[in-house]
Structure formats: structure tokens, C-alpha cells
Amino acid sequence: QAAEREPSARAPPLLTDLYQFTMAYAYWRAGRHQEPAVFELFFRDNPFGGGFSLFAGLHDCLLFLRSFRFTDEDVEFLRSVLPPATDPAFFQFLRGLDCSGVTLRSVPEGTVVFPKVCVFQPCLKVCLQPVSAASLVISLVCSNAARFRLAAGPRRKLLEMGLRRAQGPDGGLTASRYTHIGGFDLTSNVQAGFLFGIPVAGTMAHSYVTSFTSLEEVWPQTLVAVSGDPDPVDIISLTKGWLSRVCELLGAEPGKIREGELAAFLSYAISYPQNFLPVIDSYSVGCSGLLNFCAVALALCELGYRPVGVRLDSGDLCRQSVDVRRVFRLCSEHFSISAFDSLIIVGTNNISEQSMAELNKKENQIDVVGVGTHLVTCTKQPSLGCVYKLVEVRGRPRMKISEDPQKSTVPGRKSVYRLLDADGHPFLDLACLAVESPPEAGVSLRCFPLGCDDSPVSVTPAQATCLRQDVFTKGQVRRDRLTT
Amino acid sequence: QAAEREPSARAPPLLTDLYQFTMAYAYWRAGRHQEPAVFELFFRDNPFGGGFSLFAGLHDCLLFLRSFRFTDEDVEFLRSVLPPATDPAFFQFLRGLDCSGVTLRSVPEGTVVFPKVCVFQPCLKVCLQPVSAASLVISLVCSNAARFRLAAGPRRKLLEMGLRRAQGPDGGLTASRYTHIGGFDLTSNVQAGFLFGIPVAGTMAHSYVTSFTSLEEVWPQTLVAVSGDPDPVDIISLTKGWLSRVCELLGAEPGKIREGELAAFLSYAISYPQNFLPVIDSYSVGCSGLLNFCAVALALCELGYRPVGVRLDSGDLCRQSVDVRRVFRLCSEHFSISAFDSLIIVGTNNISEQSMAELNKKENQIDVVGVGTHLVTCTKQPSLGCVYKLVEVRGRPRMKISEDPQKSTVPGRKSVYRLLDADGHPFLDLACLAVESPPEAGVSLRCFPLGCDDSPVSVTPAQATCLRQDVFTKGQVRRDRLTT
Fold first, then answer.
1. How far is A168 from chain B (nearest CA, A)?
2. Domain identity same for A30 and A124
3. Does one domain contain both A152 and A209?
4. Cβ–Cβ below 8 Å for A407 and B207
5. Which of B188, B205, B155, B180 shows the shortest CA–CA distance to B364?
6. CB of B412 less than 8 A from some CB of A
7. Mean pLDDT rounded to a whole number for chain B
8. How close A333 comes to chain B (CA, Å)?
9. Which one of A37, A60, A194 has the shortest CB-CB distance to B77?
10. Domain Nicotinate phosphoribosyltransferase C-terminal spans what residues (chains A, B) (predicted)?
11. Same domain as B55, residue B201
12. Residue A447 pLDDT grade (very low, low, confident, very high; cuts 50, 70, 90)
């Protein structure tokens, strides 16, 4: 993966709820604005009915904290929306505010985390409530990506292509970044490649294929072989010859083959002879697209190039991929073109986590799966109940009691330890008050696992690690602590 | 509504799928890059099983088109991801590309639109495919907002507060903008107020309430009356007196009242005596929050201020709102404080479209409803099957045929007319080829309504309007045509 560029923070300081400012003013007015406070962020339940979540969004939080500053224009706008009675000195105070007094303890980006355990803990002055970096924590789409990864198995490559279905432009960028952390190999989103170094992929849309109608539109009509003869070869004649042989081999009807599709494939192949991977279902895979692909790919092989493969975007992907693979093997054997044994088949057609899981049960020959809508919009559960609560002010624990018992909070600043067994496998995340002594390797301790009624159990960790790290202190990002 | 600021485009030109660039190169290589092409965008089905959609996203599209330009850095990045064989002259060409050759016909932002009718029609050179402004069309969240608006009825005010549940920072901004177009009155998102002039609202979170423990934390402890005596009044003593009277009136137990909550309310009221609207469920609405509110609000009234109301954020909002209103009326009558008759009750607790509709069936006293998660993530249907297809190249109609019949497209550039009856009500959207003559008022025409098998019907419009307008021509935004 390429190094990441240093983008500017994507969240301006006004991107927060108005009440953060009204509260900040009330604290300031009461002279309490420099009091230290601790907030904790946790999830109530794992998404998608699953057994884990992946923590993500830290990168954006840190950019936000580092660059947090109100401009004159920001402050003027706040003056216009806060009540007229607001003391003008408060706006002066805002103008000078930054995050040099914030300490953030967080689990690294991409950590497997569990419900009700605090994963993200900012310590700040109460006046800094507008710094609601917590709204940048995005674990849902990352966890969703991890589930697609598990469903796909380790062999298959996964391509994220959700840009056009995400919530607005930046929703798409966020999704590309966090699905990559969640286990996707590639993205179609060029800006995500530019900003984050994620490998980008993609070749052609149906519109490219349907924009051609005849071979007369192909230009140039020649291609130079990879090695040897410097004279350009008439690739159209060469391909037509291969098309006849392919039709004969497969017993196909030449009359059903779309000339526009062949022209589109040829035109693309001439531009990118080493990167030929067309979408072959614009008309009919079996009667046209596959035959046209084979003809162009065989012509490329004859000139020493290696075609890459095909994309299927509609219909029964499994069945079609098996048919396509069978034709590739036939061509490889019949024409002795071994490059046809390593062609890849990309499948993209409204893939959900469920249809991904079914791919593994049905016979298929799909090497790369592209996922869009269901991945980035998290169709199965489009939001995660993320909770961000005040737990301590001036060193004193604070609690929220609620008419909904599950909305009550556990007071006090917590430490979280991940306990490992003798094989190095984690078996328990232990939350205790920060003032309690940490668990020790080899020493038995009593704890109360959530969901196991109220009786304590004794466990002896072979090893205990601090789950969270200081990732931001004194206005600086701790670069060494950011990812797992 | 305040005038909008002129934000820079929120989508950089690289925020598109890689295949847009590989195709653009292949067109350029074939010398076809200046050929005119027409794309059309439509939805296949209305979202949420409903009967309409609202069109939205045009504003972002136009900003994008207007500022579309590749920087040197963009072009260098493209050079690094496109195959090495790509002709360097292509990158020179990209560097000079802009949207001066694009014409966009679109329905105005906020128009009610229906499935399968093209609402957005860019005419461009084929090389401009990277200009995928269509990915900025966001109708789902806008349509969702309109459904909440319909469910809420015209009386109730609606507050959008989805920032922390949206897809990343800009997902939140997008949602604030388009829910406002869809009928929401207010947003909690300050940046949306700043950029788009949407009225912002909000007062305090539970963390503010729970951060106080005793009346000693209240500072200053005095407030000056609105008119008359310039001497500051001891508001704490005044409120304590009112609290005793309220407890007596309601037969409440003073021992259950949380002093920290009272301190928080007082502290806020001293800062914002004309904007007092606390959240009253941090501990118990009936045993503490409501009593504390009444005491502080009565003290404010005594000093000539007008408290605004309360927010409920948990439990049965309908039942609680009725109880709260009853107490307000009791106070109004018993203490002769008429300001208590116009207090507002804000309800915010995971409101869905369904629970909004149920509000209208159950007795309740909620004046303002705040909606977050279900609004911005569109829980009921988190994506809209938006289709963007090539329909014409060089004046010749193009079609995509598919193994999925519903994925086939209707070829040719279409015009769309909205037909109105004699009362001025729209009754049919008519799509025909642009080359066909337009419908005329009072003249009968034959058409084939979708879903009514294949038999034609005759209709006579009293009026026919062009549904789409030229909103972008020659690199310029047509400002007069943007909204309904």
C-alpha cells in the first residue's frame, strides 16, 4: 500500500450540534470551562446480529483534533445563531480555542471490539464539548466489510464499488477507506486511491460498449506485437479470423454476434492491450459477449499480450462463471493458448453478504467480487447505536440515569484490558475503574462477565494488554499508535 | 431562510470510478472523444414502497460541474494508476478539460418525480464521462424527509439531528441539506446553518445535566430582571422558593429531586434566560426533571423572562408529554403565569416514520419532533436504485440489452412533459423522444401508461409543462432554474 497523503481535516469545527455551543457558553459563563472531563464511547450491540465489531474512524478524528480552530467567519456565524444576550467575550474565547488540552485514548483503527466496552476516551476541558470528534467514529461500514470478507473466504479478491450509492460525495470516500480497513482489496474510487493509497481497479461500463455500433469506429486499427516485428498488425482482420474459429469451436451462430460490442472490445484492447477486461453482458454473454472477448483476447495473445479477464454484471453469476470458465479451458486446449488458463472472472451484481456466502456453497468460478450498495449503505442494518457519555468531571464519576434502564451509564473513568490465554488468544475484555490496579499475568482475578447473570467468575490471564493507547496528547498525534 | 454561502465544490474530480478514466482514454485514443453523447438518469422504483420521490442533489452537481478541473497532482496520480502504455498526450488533454461543453437538463431541486421518467439529462462529449455528476444525485434522504413531513402533519415542527449517525462527516452535511428541502424546519447541524442558511436549533445534552452535582457550582448566582430594578436578584433562593411551591402543588417528594439537575438548569437559565429549554429526563421526568424545570421557569417568569419549553428523550414520549402539559397548565392556573400556556415540548427518541405516524393517532402534546438515525440513514430502505445510462451518441439512439429484462434501457434522447388537468393538478408525466412534437394544451394524445399493460389511452391535457430545464449550459449555472 502506498503511503497516505496528508489530507486536510474533512470535518470543519462547525460540523457539530448547536447544543455543544450553547452548553460551552453556559460552562464558560459559570467559570467551569477549564474543568477536566472524561467522555467514553461504546456500542450497545454488535451490528448485523454478529459477534464482533471493527473500530474505525480514528484517522478522521485525529485530523479533526489536530486542526481544530474556529475562523473569524465561524465565530461570526455562531454570534448570529446564539442568543443576542451571549457575552461577546465568549466569542473571543472561542477564537483562541484549540485542542492542545485534549488527550485521547483509543483502540487502534481496525481493532476487533465488543459491545459496552469503552473503545475511545477523550479527556478534555468541559468547554471543548464542541470538539465532538466522536461523531467521526465510523465502525459500521468497516464491520460490514469484515463480514463480507469472512463470507467471501480468504481466496477471493474483493472490490469496493459503492461510490454512487453512498450518502453524498464524502460518504463514498469514507466508505472506500473503511471497507479497505475491513478487508477489501480494491476500490473503484479514484479519490480514495489518491488520498489513502488504496489500490484502484475498474475497466469499462456498459455505456462504453453500447456507444459503439460498427467496426468502422475502431481507430487505430492496428497493434504492434510485443516483441519481434515492428510492423503494426491489422488487429481487426486478426480478430475476425479468431472469431470465426471460436464460433466454429463452440458451435455458435455468427449472426447473433453484436458488431458494436466487438468494436468496443477491440477499441479498448488497442488502447490497453495488457489490461483487457471487458464487461461481457451488454447484450448476451453466451451469444455475443463471451465470443467477442475470446476473439479479441486470442488476437492479443497471438501478438504476445496477456488479456486479463471478463466482468459479469447481471443474471446468475455462478452459472455464467462456470460456463465462461469452460469456454476459456476449451480455447486454451484447442488453440494451445495457456494464457486462457489464468484469465480472471469478476462478478458484480447487487452482491449482499448473503449472496456472498451462497457463492461459497454453489459451484462457481468467480475470482473477484465487486460489492457496492449493500456494502456502503449497510442495508442489513444502516446504523449503529453508538453511545458517547460523560463519565467524570473534576475527577468525580458522573452517571446518567434513565427511564430506559439500558440508557443508564456506568460512572467513572474506565481502563480496558484484553486478557489472553496461554496460546496468545484473547478470551476476555476486562473493564475496570482506571484507579483500580491492572490485571497481572498469572494472577487470578474475579470479574462479572456481561450477560452471565451477576455471579462472578475467576480467570487467570497468561497475558494482559491495555486495549487503548494514548493516540493524541498535547495537540499532537502519536503516529506510532494508530493502527493494529 | 438566509442566503446561501458559495461553498466550493464538495466533490473533487477524482471522486469517480476508475473505469471512467480508462474509458475516456480509449475514446480519446480512437479519436472519438469529441463525439456528443446523452445520458439519462432515472429511478426504477419509488423508495420506501411509496408513491413518489423528491429529486435532490442538483446543487452539488452544479458546483461540481462549474469547478470541474484536474490539477497537476490529480493528473500525476492518474498517470500512476493507468497502465504504463497510456499515451502521455492523454494526460495533457485531461489537464485542459473542463465542463464548458456540458449541457445539463434537470428537474429543479425538490420536484416530485416518479419512477422510470428521466429527471436528469447531461449532454456532453464522450471523453467527459469522468464527470459523473450523477453520483451526486441524492433523492433518497430527501424523499425520506418528505415522508416524515407527511407523517408528522403540517402542525408539528421537525428538527433534523442526524449528524452523528450519518456516513462520515459529509454524509451528515448532505443529510441536513436535503432533509430541509424535504420539509424539515430545523437542523442541529451548525455547519449546515453556516453553509446553507438552514435554521439551527438545540440547547443541551444529558452530559451537561450530569456534569453538575450541587447548587454550589452555579455561577453567577444572580440575574437581573428584564425591566425595572437594576439590582441583581438571587435566582437560587428565588428558584428554591418556587420549587417548594411546585412540590406542594403537585404533591411531589422534595427528597427525590436531584440537586445537580437543578444546578444545571439554573446555570443554563442564567446564561440564556430567554432560551431556556432543558432536557428533563436525565434522572426522572416526574420525580425530578419536570419539577426542577417548573421551578426555574417560574423564577424566570417572575423576573420577566419567557422560558421556551422542555425536551423529552426517553420512554413513552406521548404519555410523558401529556403529563408534562398537565403540569404546565396546573402551574399556569395556580400561579397565574400565562407564559406556561405556551411552553413547547420537544420529543426526541429514535423516531421512525412509523412512530411519527403513530404520534398522530395517540393523545400527545409534542410540538417539535427531533429525528436522527431513521431519517439520515433511511433505515427503511438505505439505498435507491438509481440508473444512469447512455441513450444517444452522435445523435444516434443507444440501448443496453440485458439478461435481466428490467435492466434493458429505452434508447434515444427523451423529453418529459408534466400534463395538468383543468384544475391545474398534474395527472401524468409524459416521456417521448425529443424529436417528437410536444403535447399541446387541449389536444388529445395517445400514450401508453406504464403498468397498464400495452393498450394505449387517450388523454387531453389542459396544460403541459416541460418537466426539466436547462440548468447548466456553456460552463455556467442557470441560477433562475434551480428550485421549484
1. 6
2. yes
3. yes
4. no
5. B155
6. no
7. 90
8. 29
9. A194
10. 413-480
11. no
12. very high
Is residue B2 one of the residues assigned to a domain? no
CB-CB contact of B170 with A10 (8 Å)? yes
* Domain limits for position A159: 144-376
Where a domain ends, among B323, B355, B376? Answer: B376
State pLDDT tens for residues A46-99: 999 999 999 988 888 888 899 899 999 999 999 999 999 899 999 999 999 999
Could you tell me the CATH number of the domain that includes residue B394? 3.20.140.10
Q: How many other C-beta atoms can be found within 10 angstroms of the C-beta atom of residue A355? A: 18
Would you say B446 and B456 are in contact if contact means Cβ atoms under 8 Å apart? yes
Q: Do B307 and B201 share a domain, yes or no?
A: yes
Give me the CATH number covering residue A360: 3.20.20.70
Instruction: Say which of A74, A85, A189 has its CB closest to residue B272.
Output: A85
What pLDDT sits at residue B2? 44
Same domain, B170 and B308: yes
Name chain B contacts of A210, Cβ cutoff 8 Å.
390, 398-400
Residues with pLDDT less than 50, chain B: 1-2
Whether A74 contacts chain B with CB within 8 A: yes
Give the tens place of pLDDT for each residue, A122-134.
888 877 766 666 6
Q: What is d(CA A364, CA A318) in angstroms, rounded to the nearest whole number?
A: 5
In this complex, the residue of A21, A219, A284 whose CB is nearest that of residue B403 is: A284
Dihedral (C-alpha) A259, A262, A263, A266: value to the nearest 10 degrees?
Answer: -160
Among residues 414-473 of chain A, which lie with CB inside 8 Å of chain B? none
Number of structural domains (chain B) is 2
Q: For residue A174, list chain B residues with Cβ-Cβ distance below 8 A.
A: 167-171
Identify whether residues A39 and A169 lie together within a single domain: no
pLDDT band at A1 (very low <50, low <70, confident <90, very high): very low
Beta-carbon separation of B83 and A167 below 8 A: no
Q: What span, in angstroms and rounded, lies between the C-alpha atoms of A46 and A119?
A: 13
Residues B119 and B264 in one domain: no
CB neighbour list of residue B161: distance below 8 Å, 6 or more residues apart: A17, B187, B188, B189, B202, B348, B370, B371, B372
End-to-end CA distance of chain A, in Å? 15
Average pLDDT, chain A: 90
Q: Does residue B359 belong to the interface with chain A, where contact is any CB pair within 8 Å?
A: no
Q: Is residue B151 part of a domain?
A: yes
Is pLDDT above 60 for A484? no
Distance from CA of A446 to the nearest CA of B (A): 30
Other beta carbons less than 10 A from residue B45's beta carbon: 14
- Identify whether residues B33 and B91 lie together within a single domain: yes
